[in-house]
Fold these 2 entries.
Entry 1:
Amino acid sequence: MTGALMLSAAAAPGGSVLFAIFALAACLCAVAVVASQTVVRMAFWLVLSLGSTAALFFLADADFVGAAQLLIYVGGTLVLLVFGVMLTASGPYLKIATSPGETILGAVVALLFLCVVVASVSGVTWPEPVAADAGALQTASGNTLRPLGLAFLGTRPDQDLADGDQLSPGYLLPFEIISIHLLVVLIGAAYLARAKRRAVGT
Amino acid sequence: MSLSAYLLVGAVLFVCGIVCMATKRNGIGVLMGVELVLNGANVNFVAFSKYTQLGLDGQIFSLFVIVLAAAEAAVALAIALNFYNNHLTIDVDRANKLKG
Amino acid sequence: MILAAQSIADFLAGITEVIAPGKGLQYVLAAVIHAVLLVHAFALSPAIFIWLERKVAGRIQDRLGPTRVGGLFGWLQSLADGIKLVQKEDLCPPAADSLLFRSAPYFVCVASFAAFMVLPFSAGWVAVAADCGLFIILAILSLEVFGIIMAGYSSGSKWSLFGGMREAAQMVSYEIPLAICALVPVIAAGSLNLGEIGGMQRGGVHNWFIFHDPFAFIAFFVYFVVATASCKRAPFDLAEAESELVGGFHTEYSGIRWSFFFMGEYASMFAVCGIASILFLGGWNTGIPPLDDALYAARNAGASGQGSAIVGYLANVLGMLVFVSKAALGVFVQIWLRWTLPRLRIDQVMTTCLKYLVPISCFLFLGATVWPLLLATALQRSTWTPEALGVRAAAELRESVPAADVPATASGAVTAVEARQESATEGAVR
């Protein structure tokens, strides 16, 4: 039932309206991050932008990735960033002033860069998704949890082993490596950021 | 809701992140730019996962990107805090001790 | 028949296909109806629980609580409070960052409201039946921290800043044991879908996951304590510690903005108690075997059209009442704790979390994963209950996974379910 709901919602006018709302929110909040004058406001707009991106992930039938984005990115990394902002603020709402000339130059460069990226991306004809029964994953329902879990354990139930094109091993080794990596990095970061005596002026 | 719409969103996030990294004087501001860049890449991965033959691999890669971004933000923040403790400023323009 | 529709969307399809055929309007309308229903659940639960808090607090303190508004028990007191708060002056301190100050309550409110999206109130009565529903709830509940930080920082007052920082540290730290303890029954169930987890616990009290293994039993109490802490309720309520911090992060808030924080708090109390009742206490199942079986049969008969649809619908309503009363009982216990126990200091709060609750939850998680191995080697069973969990789990999974969701190539996902079924029936056939 969820599958049919999602598919029809994707085709229905509601789906594209929601996509438009969240895409616009993500882009405008990202621009606001660049344009903000205070770091805390930048963090605020960044939270809204990343939250809208998570909503875009939900709309693209990547439920687990969207929830992971909310939990890890917004609920973890951004909270960490905001704590960092507060620990390094030597004055309330320190303003980051940029001169008007620099602002215009920055905007022009950004627009040119965006045009280059969009032009190069739209010049490619991307391969169409394979039609249903050739072993492609039925992610239309958003039920990616079990396939993702199994892929991380090294099995790929969503792929047809008989089709040589599609063979891709599971992701067990990267999963283990990334677990150890995260552990080591966070222990190192906690050690690096331990409270030390602050230098008395410089 | 086509592929190109998602790619456009990803491109805008990426460009905003690059501009943020290049123009902000606050070290934490630069970190926020890095987060935007990684998110632009994630949007691309998930869009390709849905609209092309990439399938599940796109979502797996975006999960890896999220985890690695969290680790990298932690380390970068630890470095920024150390810098602040030593110099009492987080202004990247003041980090010029190694300048010749 | 109206009530035999599989979902609100199917029911509306009959009407919208006539008005605007082929545009999928029924899904938009169904979403709106779900949203309206959930807004009512989200808004009424604080109103009722605030009244309950004041009455229970009064009784514990040997007084009566509200008795005037609305008759003998003062049950309209929340309405009077709401009217008072709405008509108060809208203050924003001059030293405050006004954009962040004004938008912080909405983060807290939206986060705790959105958690109701994936919370099933009865069998099939859920707004979004997501496969990773529990994970989505944990992710959304973790967004409240940002609202608290914004409120504390942007108020421009030192009490708010201290309260906000302490509160953020507490909520972020307590997310870890919350997630680990919530995973203990998931190990037993094999699914993150809250609807499936609730459905697997039908057939009697012995099937509830709290009695599934000793680790899940302990995990329920640890989860309850951690959920109380993450809702910033006493004895973990330093953020609002009136005796220390004036008001903590909400010192500078007044009127309807202040009440948004408390709507979010009571609604998330109800949400975490609802999650506890689904994960551990059987959700919408009554726990009395003949009654459970009768309700299950009535529900299925109504849904498939063989029996009376109204009786099936009423079976679901009864399930919803059971679920709401279990969650309300959890909230009552939280209120009871608040007015009985003294407040912990911030260092005691952090010590409890990081030095005691995290190792305990890791131990429970490890034990819960090892438990089936122990049962299988020592007792040659898969569960200690008469009916093997795997059989019910497989039935639940088969019901909830429609054919379209299964990957086309006769492949691993289907064989994974079948393999689990086989190993469970092997355990059942002793």
Note: Confidence is low (pLDDT under 50) at residues 1-12, 132-140 of chain A.
Entry 2:
Amino acid sequence: MSGEVVVFTIVSAMVLFGALGVVSTKNVGHAALYLLITLISVAGIFILLLAEFLALVQILIYGGAITIVLFFGLMLTRIDEFSSIKDTVQRPVAIVISFLLLSAIATPFLQETLTEKSLVESSLRTLGHELFTQWLIPFEVASLVLLVALIGAIVVGKDD
Amino acid sequence: MGTVAWIIPVSSIVAFLIVALGQNSSRKLPLITLFATIIGFIAFIVLSNALLQNGTQTFEITWLKTKEVMLIWGITLDPLTVTMLGLITLTAAGVQMYSLVYMKNDSRLNWYFAVHSLFLASMITLVLANNLILIYIAWELVGVCSYLLIGFWWEKRSAAEAAKKAFITTRIGDVGLLIGIILLFTETHTFNLSEIFSAASDGEISQTTITFSTLLILLGALGKSAQFPFHVWLPDAMEGPTPVSALIHAATMVVAGVYLIARCLPLFELSEISMTILLVLASITALLGGVIALVMTDLKKILAYSTITDLAFMMIALSCGGIVPSVFHLIIHGFAKAALFLGAGSITHGSGETDIRKLGGLKNKMPVTALCFSLSSLSLIGIPPLGGFFSKEGILEVLNHEYGIPLLLIGLLIAFLKACYLGRLSFFVFFGKESKSSSNAHESPKLMLLPIMLFTTLTTLSGLLLFSYGKYDGFSMFLNQEAAHAINFLHPITISSILVSLIGLLISWNIAKGKSIPGINILMKSKAIQVPIRNLFYIDNIYQWFINAIILSFGRIIALIDRQVVNDKLVDGTASILNYSSRTFRYLQTGKMYNYALGMTFGVAGLAVLNIIWQFIL
Amino acid sequence: MELIYFELLSAMLFCIGVYGVLARKHAVLVLMSIELILNAVTINAVAYATHVDGAGITGQIIAIFIITIAAAEFGLALAIILRLYAQQSNANLDEANRMKW
């Protein structure tokens, strides 16, 4: 049992624990915190995948910005039952469907054989180079998207 | 020369379009029609000259060419065509001139002349055509024009009914014609007449095909030329204006059937059965027409039945293979009947009467009409030296040649009947005591008399066509390259035919004067004979019964199916099914987002699962 | 660490996210579940980038873009939820059903 496997098991357990918490807790605030756990654990997964920069970005953006915005959103939509909310009527069906989906997705994964390579370390340099040459246009478009989302959010949120 | 030939129908079509589209604009438009017709006549003169110089020619413009079928605008300029061209353009010109006066107060004059142009174009195309498809197209068009013109005064119920009757009766024949044409096509793979004839004479077409196709073509000809059993439409067609009757139902359209058989004679001669059936039906028609004409009292109806008889006479000649006497009689009859019909119109115009019993002694008040009418009648009856004598002689001679004494006697009987009823007509109307209507009569205007005089002259002098002038070697050589047979005035046939006509005239003269002849008296008084004849031998009644019992009841069933099955179940039913299902399925739109998300996920998950199962099955 | 583990982890996270979208009544909770889904996809992409021969660094680039877009979408979605809240004074998806039959 290499150390890697152990670490992976722990981190993925945390991910799944957090995720399950998000979807099943009765307390809304707890749900947000579970989400934070999940996001941070996913950053851990990224480190396991030798994508350190991504892990950083994950924590910064998700854990930093998005979680705060999330809390704001929760507070602004003043929920009466902050600590005990109910789920929708279709909970049983949703469980079934999710299991079905899981099996449907997992089965091909279990069958496939992609040529594996040994883990390669990818440097930040390569990432930056790729981003600004090969993927320049999507990069610019992404910035446009952010702009549009920004303006859109302001417009939609106005109180006319 | 091809262009010259094509000018005739094209100019008339152009005239048709101009006059029809500009109907409400000017009252002078009919002159365009007349102009186009005169162009046609001039073209005829040019073409006949060219024919005498150069012989038969053919011109073709290919319209549609596929692997199996070629549709060609093809013209053949041979003696038969050119003869017909002359007859058609000249009669049309005369009748149109007459119509300018006769119909001048009609509100829809322009439409009348427009259809005249269309008719001329179609009729010309029919005689010019060298392939069966073009003939068929022109055939149908001619029928349409006849329908439009018979029903010209459609406000009158009887006229509308007559037009419908004419069209439907000829339609039955037309179906036969089309099937015959297609039958020939399946064996010869061409519509071109000369190709079909050469294939037939080479023995490439099976005898059954020849027999059936000629019988079917015969069907078409019988319909169009108003022979038994399709003769019922022609007397009713007299509802149309008189110039129309003169042009279409005497001189041109009804001879289309005779023309078709004359054209296809090489084919017909290969089938004994068709020729015999033609002979039988034509003889029945001739006797039928002649007998009924004896009891009719309406001016135009007598002439209508006379037309039926004369057409039958031409058909009889054709069935004996005598194309020359038949076509000669066609020309003579064309001009004579046109003159007679136009004269009848003149009588009606002058005296306001159409019943011959109410007219008498009209020759005092309408001398020109009387003279022309009588001369044309005499020509038709066949008194020498008028033109009709030669044609009658020719027909009787060929009848005797082919079938001997029995048929000759029938021919003589037909001639006798012709003399009787035409004589009766003229004597009743023009001679004898003046009736009240006659004394108030007045002669018709010059423009109306001119065509009548022209036609009368042509029919009386047409005997001259038998002689040779320059390149023209006499009608017999011109038409069919056969030597004309000399008229021998001492031959028994000639003598008996003249005798028979004179006896007929004598009898009708006496009947008109009111004297009673013993034998004829019995015929006239006996109810058993008179009633069936006056009821037209009940043929119309039989047809009407058939239509009511079979066709209309079938129609009612179909209408029921249409209303209840197609309309209620299929059309309305589809709509109500849609309505019902939409009202049931709309509840799927709950408005809640997670329901929609469930649907989407269900779809994706379902597809993925199906995919996996599929992979495991295969 | 083999690819299959990451793939399975990603699949499970994805399905948990799907369950959350379908089963939660409050709009913001649905949004959180969507974030879970996006993260699952990101893990998958990066796993491919690292483990598969010849994939280059594309997976990580994609991951960056996913994170960017997710952030943008999150903000916009919250704005919409706030409007919804303004309409019906709570953010329950149960009551947001006016576009129904």
Note: The mean pLDDT of chain B is 88.
